[in-house]
Amino acid sequence: MAYRPAREGNLLSLYINNRAGGLIFHRDFSPNAAKLDTNEQMQLASTFSGLALIMGQLAPSRPSSGMQLLEADGFLLQSFDSPTGIKFFLTAEPDAKGLDLVLREVYTYYADYVLKNPFYEMDMPIQKGGKFCQKLDRMVAQVQDRR
Amino acid sequence: MLHSFHIFNRKGDLLFYKEWARAPRSAKAMADDHKLMFGFLFSLKQLVNKMAPRGSGGGLHACSTSTYKLHYFETASGLRFVLCTGLAAGDLRETLRRLYADIYVETLTKNPLHRLDEPITCKSFEQAVDAFFASLQQGQG
User: Sorted alphabetically, which keywords does the UniProt record give (chain A) (predicted)?
Assistant: First the structure.
């Protein structure tokens, strides 16, 4: 059952990083999303993985997770790490709410439509246009509708 | 709950530091942490500028992990105020701005003996900052 949070603020983009911090999936959901070429996306995604880790190391009391939420004037970024080390992160307009729940939903799709595919190899890029992508687009369309 | 407070200048020198209830560390570990903190914020700012949606600048102001929240405020002159608090803290942008405008500017910028880019040793600044954080902590309960 798809979760339907009440929210304002459009989702902008989704990134998925593998255990090594390499980008394996990226998708923009809004024409407002930052215009980046593939190289820049990969660079930003792996920088974020590193920075999220460093923020955990800077924690006043350890153990601490890495960065989970980033708030800027122009956007919000919510990040979610799966227990196996895959990092899902989502950017959205600043007044967006319930981003963590959207990420859980994405994680379920990842588990169901990427990991259960016998031809998928761990840590490799996720095919665009596959079942995962379709499910994701449908869920995001629902979420954007509910603004 | 407050953890730590840094002021960096735009070159990354630490001008002022204060911490509350943290496990004691060696001076070297602390200096390393300060460098890491500045480097972290420097790169994070670049990341935020690139990731920002079209038509908006970056404007990083807070980020959090499962255990703490970091609040960031940068002045036009490149001073960076960094306050680490517990997760219960809300939006502290205005608080940090007031700290700059009412305390930093009043006690240091207007102080003829204060030298830019040198670690802050001014007593009245320290007292005002202590009082400011004490009232902040009381307000948070």
Answer: Endoplasmic reticulum, ER-Golgi transport, Golgi apparatus, Transport
